[in-house]
Design goal:
single chain, 472 residues, alpha+beta, FAD/NAD(P)-binding domain, Glutaredoxin, 3 domains, 7-stranded mixed β-sheet, 29% strand, globular
Length: 472
């Protein structure tokens, strides 16, 4: 039996999915040590959240993993409708506006969730972090100064961890949320159960996303996963329950498509679920924060769940960093729920409408239009932007991009097309830059937050110093 011990950690992260790993990476580059605990013995093995939206690609750009994401994934293939064993024409499920100077990632990118997690885990290791696998949270208490968590390992050992803050990134069945007694409010999106599996089908071409509408028994689709030999199989059941065994999946494909059971050469992973939309009644309880699926559960339609989750912690990470490293007021952490809960509610509604066929995938699903206008950290406006807006990318004369200036844990004070004086702020976490006129910004001064949103904007620096007091 392992001896019970108390260890100190600035942040405890429960869960090593995309949410927990992205937060750990963000904190590590800020010099904030996090203990990441994961109940499973390894990273999640399935493809479940396979669609990376353009806004999340921008997050991954900032975190230093976008090159690996691009190299490992690919564009979503055009859908192919099948009827009675014959191809009945293509159907593109996505708008594809293409990249622009201001929006360099112009369409969704497919990457199986297991690979996304591998990439983030590798990045975390590069930054000096690690994950404690096979470690489950069994209890959590808090006081005015911190959080005390009880952990258990698969070998029967126990340990007590003391942290300044804790983040629940432990999924839709969150243990942390249940211990805290935070309710989830929501609805069933569709009473029909769904099956998702990773399979190999050498007999099927990888040029299309294959769609089999079905005859009333429920739709089935087979999507090639870029960078692998695998397909993701998704099937709806209007009658009966999914059989997750390899034999059951082979029989399902043979019954619903023109393929034979033996055409499924491998079943690598499978799971079932009932599409649901739900949101936690609150995202913060004292020193504990809920993020990702622990805070909101989406239908997979539209590909919003993983993306909203990663963007949760992109919002939270810099705020924890400012409080722990730069002495920002505790009130800064209140803005996490104030900013993210409305976004989660908006994305839940979008996912539900797409699932029910009430709305098509389009600009809203790419999440580039999401922002925090009118929020607690949005002040002013200038040129073409208001505080709270996403800060556009753009080319620089030296061959770099604006995103290169923004990349990192700092704020960026950007003067665009103006001779307005840049004040001496005496803060090493604010990097000033001046560029020429650029239409997506217009003319003015723009303080870009570490998460790529305009925090403050104005024609001159009046009010900037006062605004920064909220963040330091």
């Amino acid at each position: 039996m392992e001896l019970n011990s108390v260890k100190e950690s600035p942040v405890l992260i429960v869960g090593a999915g995309p949410t927990g790993l992205a937060l750990a990476c963000d904190l590590a580059r800020r010099g904030v040590r996090a203990l990441v605990v994961e109940q499973s013995g390894s990273l999640f093995p399935g493809s479940r959240g396979k669609g990376i939206q353009p806004r999340t690609m921008e997050v991954f750009d900032d975190l230093g993993v976008v090159d690996a994401v691009v190299a490992s994934g690919g564009k979503a293939p055009v859908g192919m409708i099948w009827q009675d064993g014959s191809r009945h024409g293509e159907y593109d499920m996505f708008e594809r506006p293409g990249p622009t100077e201001a929006e360099p990632y112009g369409e969704p990118w497919l990457l199986p969730q297991w690979r996304t997690q591998q990439i983030l885990h590798t990045r975390l290791t590069e930054l000096g972090g690690a994950v404690a696998f096979g470690t489950a949270l069994t209890g959590i208490e808090q006081d005015a100064d911190g959080v005390t968590a009880e952990l258990s390992t698969g070998t029967g050992g126990t340990r007590t961890v003391r942290a300044a803050y804790a983040v629940a990134a432990d999924g839709g069945r969150s243990t942390v949320r249940k211990i805290l007694g935070i309710a989830m409010t929501g609805e069933s999106v569709d009473p029909a159960p769904m099956l998702v599996a990773d399979v190999r089908i050498p007999a099927l071409d990888r040029l299309n996303w294959h769609i089999f509408p079905g005859d009333g028994s429920g739709h089935l689709s087979v999507c090639p996963l870029p960078g692998t030999d695998d397909f993701q199989l998704v099937c709806q059941f209007t009658q009966g329950e999914p059989d997750l065994s390899p034999a059951g999946i082979r029989a399902l494909v043979a019954a619903r498509t023109h393929l034979a059971a033996d055409d499924i050469t491998e079943v690598l992973w499978s799971s079932d679920f009932r599409p649901r939309a739900a949101m936690a009644d609150r995202f913060r309880e004292g020193r504990v924060f809920l993020a990702g699926d622990a805070a909101h559960i989406h239908s997979p339609a539209g590909g919003q769940g993983l993306n909203t989750s990663v963007q949760d912690v992109y919002n939270l990470g810099w705020k924890l960093g400012q409080v722990l490293r730069h002495g920002a007021p505790e009130a800064l952490l209140d803005t996490y729920e104030q900013e993210r809960q409305p976004v989660a509610e908006q994305m839940l509604g979008l996912s539900t409408r797409i699932h029910r066929g009430q709305e098509q995938r389009g600009a809203a699903t790419m999440q580039l239009g999401l922002g925090y206008r009118g929020g607690p950290l949005a002040l002013g406006g200038a040129g073409a932007l208001e505080a709270g807006d996403r800060a556009p990318d753009g080319p620089l004369p030296d061959g770099r991009r604006l995103f290169d200036l923004f990349r990192g844990p700092h704020f960026t004070l950007l003067a665009v097309g103006t001779d307005a004086e840049l004040p001496l702020l005496e803060r090493d976490w604010v990097h000033p830059h001046r560029i020429g006129a650029y239409e997506p910004y217009g003319k003015g001064l723009f303080l870009i937050r570490p998460d790529g949103h305009v925090g403050w904007a104005g024609e001159d620096a009046a009010g900037l110093a006062e605004y920064l007091l909220r963040c330091c």
